[in-house]
Structures are given as structure tokens and as C-alpha cells.
């Protein structure tokens, strides 16, 4: 940006900006609901119980259901996919019955765990009997299956082109997908509202940057205002 563009911007001082922010009234009740929404969605049941006691904010779901949901999520994160499937069916069998993509990804994760533990013959048999028929019905499933089975072709899976399937991030991806499905079945948002609001803040600041120089929040964690560039 040239000097002409920068100098043409309106400059808002820290004092004026803070005064305008102070004029915006936000109810404490709304802030408490935002915090509770985050704790419930992300599964922090102990924190949610403590926050409910301290703030008087009621959660949107039974906190006991959070414990069950987190048990399912933890099972996938630990590689115990069969246990996770059993637990989610105990919660609500319709979750997997009505979501073939999710069920495929859980079965795919089971295959990955078999390969991880060196049970290669069992893995190949499982792929042929459980996953191949689903791949024939859905092209995207077939591509994912082929990529997963490719792990069997490498002795050193840590350096193979599809080695990322064995990373913890793959377990986390599957666990998050299952967690979102459980939340949806409970008529709850699958994503917390707080991160969306932070994304909106960043977008709004980027839009405002084109016209105004103002005290910006660059460090989202600290939420500190920085003096405008003059």
C-alpha cells in the first residue's frame, strides 16, 4: 500500500475506539450461554458442571450425555473403534444407520488400526469383506479404501506416501466426525459458537482495514488492542 492510500484512511484513536466499545451493551447472560455452549460442545463436562454451579447457567443438554459422548470420542482416539461403535449404538443406533459415510470412515479406521498392529492378513480380509462392497457402491469410498489398503504395500509405513493415515490426526478426524453426528442427533450444534464468532471478528477487522486505521486485536488469545498505525 502506498503512502497516498495510507494517509487517506480515517484514523480512530484508542480513546475514541474504547469509548465506542464501551457503548456496546452485552448481557452477561448471553456471555455465560456462549461459554456453556463451548464447554458442552467440546465435552468439558466437569468444567460445565462447575460453571453451571457458579453462574447459574443451564446447559442445553443433559450433562450425563456429555460423559457418554466423550467416552465414544475417546475410544476412537485410542484406536478402539469396535468399542466406539458399540457405545454409539447404545446411545442411538440410528446415528450409524442413517449415516453411511460416517460408518464407512469408522470401518476404515478399524482397518487402519489392524494395519498399525501388524495384523496384515486380518486387515486384508476385513477390507475385502467389510469395505470393498461399500467401495463398489460409492466411488469416493473406493478411493479412500484404495489409499488405505496401499499401506499394506510398504514395510516402512512411516515414510510411505499414505503414512499420514497412521498419524493421530487421522484418529482425531474420525473422532470429530462421530462427535458431530452424536451432537446433531441430540439437536445440538455440531460446532461451538465461540470459534465462529472469532472468525467473524477476524473477517470484520480485515474488511475494516481497507478504510480505517484503528486499534486492532492482533493477538486473539490476549485480546489486546494495539494502537492504530498512523
Automatic annotation (TrEMBL):
Classification via PROSITE patterns: CTLH, LISH
Superkingdom of origin organism: Eukaryota
Name the InterPro entries for this protein: CRA_dom (IPR013144), CTLH/CRA (IPR024964), CTLH_C (IPR006595), LisH (IPR006594), Ubq-SigPath_Reg (IPR050618)
Q: In this protein, which residues make up the domain named CTLH?
A: 65-122
A cellular component term, taken from the record's GO annotations: cytoplasm
Q: Which SMART domains match?
A: CRA, CTLH, LisH
Q: Which PANTHER family match?
A: RAN BINDING PROTEIN 9-RELATED (PTHR12864)
- Give the protein's recorded name: CTLH domain-containing protein
